[in-house]
Amino acid sequence: MNLFKSGVFVNQGSFKSFVPSLINRAWTINDMNVLSLLSKADRMLGRLDMFSEYIPNIDLFISMHIAKEATLSSKIEGTQTNIQQAVMPEESVPLDKRDDWAEIQNYISAINQAIPRLESLPLSSRLIREVHSELMKGVRGKNKQPGEFRLSQNWIGGANINDAIFIPPPANMIYDLMSDIEKFIHNSETQLPDLLKIAIIHYQFETIHPFNDGNGRTGRLLITLYLVSKGLLKRPVLYMSDYLEKHRNSYYSSIMKVRTDNDLSQWLSFFLQGIIETAEKGVNTFNKILSLEKDQEAIVRQMGSRSANAMTVIKELYMRPVVDAKKVAKVCDISVASAYNLISELEKRGILTEITGGKRNCFYAMQSYLDLFR
Q: What is the C-alpha separation between 163 and 139, in angstroms, rounded?
């Protein structure tokens, strides 16, 4: 690692772009701090993965983790929708928030489509382009070649390229650099632990910045897709946007120090610490969800003849923790009037909270569940 060279700045006339070194090569990691963090990260990731195997109805929980990830990932990009709005139907979202809401729905759709695709298509440039296309569908950036690598020079930070914070490599190098990432993903001869590989891949992807827009969201999704594709996670239950948003300045500075100072150790340490904290937080959240589920079942058992319908509503809420009377009536196969009575009973028992503040077309949230993801 002491001999690592991240790349070179190449004069392009009025500016210098950064051309990263290829990563599909032999690696020797000899930093003891990195190796210590790697061991801890492996253990915490294993604990998190255990939940996906033994917790009943894991799909119910994954859906909310994806919604949370989508909200936080988009927040890093400047989108301001909160998790409560993210899980509401479009018609109930304020008009000035619908563009933000659509970006989050695209994120959820992208991960839900990409995970099954791994069964028939290896993690590759093609799959990455498919993910990007879904992320950009019908939202800001939709006219910036969704699903296609850029054909022009881009830059990061600054009003124009001359005062940019960082200028990625020229467009004519994108395909070769992305091909190098793809080869590295599937190179089994490097004997480099997968958590270090994805840390390097994420750094390289963000450095290449292969798309005109949406590189950050795509790069963060790439982490989860890699962990699932390599079998480190059986299900997509780890998302790092919470950690990256919380430590945004350190995230950017650690990546930048690789480019300017060849300091890969700091970036690897930052990334592994993120895996540790995110996995630990995930384990704690899963435990709290199970505890909440048990408490709610005890409450519902006291509701007499309404217990069965109340449990049906709660199961629905674990998929999408915001409902209205029409939804309750549909899932329970009861009249809307009966649905309002059931909702009123669930409000009294603290399971539902009215969130729209109106008298008509009201929506109700399982606030105790949403609070676990804030």
A: 27
